[in-house]
Design goal:
binds iron/sulfur cluster; 5-stranded mixed barrel
Length: 429
């Protein structure tokens, strides 16, 4: 979501004359868009600002802005601790960024802007064309969360659930298509909780599918509780919705899910899995796991392993629990570090096995790849399979933005390697 937000911030500050630069030394405004999900996010921000100060130590200082969820969580504390920062601006306030920069230039006094103005933000952004022209681009449709999982900062940093108006999203998707975008990933902290009047995520997918230039549609991140039947059913209807479902489960134990306040059970998860596999057996799953959540015992951990081996997730994120200040889980007693690490290693080994088995099963097969860009190192091309797996292959510039057939010749855990298959060499059934 920060990638989408950063692009929209660039679209906004263009209006007051700022342009992107890849040379930090020539910047007269430096903006750091931050994420609070990962461990030690706050310290990383101070470290980065220290690095910027070093770059400018014998030059005129740029305006330094910290945006995003760390800014939201830390706000005035940040301005007090690091005087090099001039403006902090939360993720729901960045539509005000031009005014804040101008105010700062006039008065030279520090600015803390961390209100939740989500509706006004999207009203404002809607008037500024999205300039993203990457073959695969993000489109935010929903923000915030009302679920309050005990470990998560999102409800505090992004605010309550908000869904953008349906027509606004379709218009933005059309603009992206005309910019050259061929794959759209619909974004939201709870993307499948999207609801605007009677429109749901399934309606959005089917409407975007009508845009001829768009070849592929994805969405992330979803919550098991919001995997409604209408959404499951479109996997049997849609021609452009990709068959990879990223559905965070966090733990395989109902006891731990309850401790986390996840509001779903493992049975719910299995029901979704079974329904989707019945609709399309080729659908694969990826997920997120928090290992060694306070209260997780050996049996709970084994339940997570069992789930992983049943679903055979093809690509997942797994981390040891680390507390986020201000959340309900922040004061809980941590599991011993050695045990946590052992559990993570076991889990990751299983997850990696499933990932590599999936890649191995594709060796010598012909797969469909959306060509995204040319690699820097060896003049090969980069794209992704329907399941998001990166592919490096020989192709030509005219293939950019097209879905082409690639024969897989090699693989490793994360990547497939191959050759474009010319149409003339494809056998016709
Ligand atoms: S549903 Fe997702 S975004 Fe919301 S609190 Fe839970 S983990 Fe955070």
């Amino acid at each position: 979501m920060n990638e989408y937000d950063t692009n929209r911030i660039f679209d906004t500050v263009k209006e007051i004359g700022f342009n992107k630069t890849s040379n930090i030394e020539e910047a007269n405004c430096y903006l750091l868009n931050t994420c609070h999900i990962r461990d030690k996010a706050k310290e990383k921000v101070y470290h980065e600002i220290g690095r910027v100060r070093e770059v400018f130590k014998s030059k005129k200082k740029p305006i330094v802005i910290v945006a995003g969820c760390v800014a939201q969580a830390e706000n005035d504390q940040m301005l007090k601790r690091e005087p090099y920062i001039d403006i902090v601006i939360g993720p729901q306030s960045y539509h005000k960024i031009n005014k804040k920069i101008e105010d700062f230039l006039k008065k030279q006094s520090k600015i803390d802007e961390t209100e939740f103005d989500t509706i006004l933000k999207f009203d404002y952004l809607n008037k500024i064309e999205n300039s993203s022209n990457k073959i695969s681009s993000f489109l935010t449709i929903q923000e915030g969360c009302d679920k309050f999982c005990n470990f998560c900062v999102v409800p505090y940093t992004r605010g309550p659930e908000y869904s953008r108006p349906f027509n606004e999203i379709i218009e933005e998707a059309k603009i992206l298509a005309s910019n050259g975008v061929r794959e759209i990933t619909l974004l939201g902290q709870n993307v499948n909780a999207y609801k605007n009047n009677n429109y749901k995520l399934s309606n959005l997918i089917l409407e975007i599918e009508k845009i001829p230039e768009i070849e592929r549609i994805r969405y992330t991140t979803s919550h098991p509780r919001d995997m409604t039947d209408d959404l499951l059913e479109i996997y049997g209807v849609s021609k452009k919705l990709m068959p990879l479902v990223h559905l965070p489960v966090q733990s395989g134990s109902d006891k731990v899910l309850k401790l986390m306040n996840r509001k779903h059970t493992i049975k719910d998860y299995h029901v979704i899995y079974d329904k989707l596999k019945e609709i399309n057996p080729l659908i694969q799953f990826s997920s997120d796991f928090i290992i060694a959540y306070p209260g997780e015992d050996e049996d709970d951990f084994k339940e997570t392993l069992k789930l992983i081996n049943k679903i055979k997730f093809i690509n997942s994120f797994s981390f040891i629990f680390s507390p986020r200040p201000g959340t309900a889980a922040s004061e809980l007693k941590l599991i011993e570090k050695k045990i946590s690490l052992q559990r993570l290693q076991i889990i990751q080994k299983e997850l990696f096995n499933h990932q590599i088995n999936m890649n191995k099963s594709l060796e010598n097969k012909i797969i469909e790849v959306l060509v995204e860009n040319k690699t820097k190192k060896n003049s090969k091309y980069f794209g992704r399979t329907e399941y998001m797996t990166p592919v490096i292959f020989n192709a030509s510039h005219k293939d950019m933005g097209k879905v082409i057939k690639v024969k897989v010749t090699n693989y490793n855990q994360n990547t497939l390697f191959g050759e474009k298959v010319e149409k003339s060499k494809l056998r016709v059934a």
